[in-house]
Amino acid sequence: MSPSLQQAFQQFAELPAPLQNDVAAYLQKHKDDILKQASKEKALQTPQTESDTQQKIDPKLDPWSNPDLPLTTAQTGLSDMAANHDHYAWGTPKKHNHE
User: Fold this and answer.
1) Which range marks the domain in which residue 33 is found?
2) Does some domain include residue 66?
């Protein structure tokens, strides 16, 4: 048994018996979902190899190599998109209100 699992069981052992039963029932009921989520999180934490992170980019299509390349833009109609990109992408509170 891993040390982290031993620590978790020790913490559960310190709970009152009725709460231990509730935790055990919850873990049994949601075991598959918990294991799937843990697997996803582990995959996200696994470092990628250099070949995975470095894609071959045609220098003609790379704006860093070809400064004359026209950049793609999108008209969103949002005057504060740059200042509040986290709000529009993730729903965080707006930092600035320019409207």
Assistant:
1) 3-49
2) no
Q: How many Å from the N-terminal Cα to the C-terminal Cα in the chain?
A: 57
33-81 per-position pLDDT tens digit: 988 888 888 776 666 665 555 667 777 877 788 888 887 777 888 888 8
54 falls within a domain: no
Q: Centre a 10 Å sphere on the Cβ of residue 69 and count the other Cβ atoms it contains.
A: 13
Does the residue 27 lie in any domain?
Answer: yes
Find the DSSP H helices in 3-97.
3-13, 17-29, 31-45, 50-53, 85-90
Is position 82 within any domain?
A: no
Domain count, the chain: 1
Name the amino acid, one letter, at 94: K
* Joined tokens for residue 70: 């026209």
Contact 88, 78 (CB under 8 A): yes
- Which two tokens mark 96? 């600035």
Asked if residue 32 lies in contact with residue 38, where contact means CB atoms within 8 angstroms, the answer is no
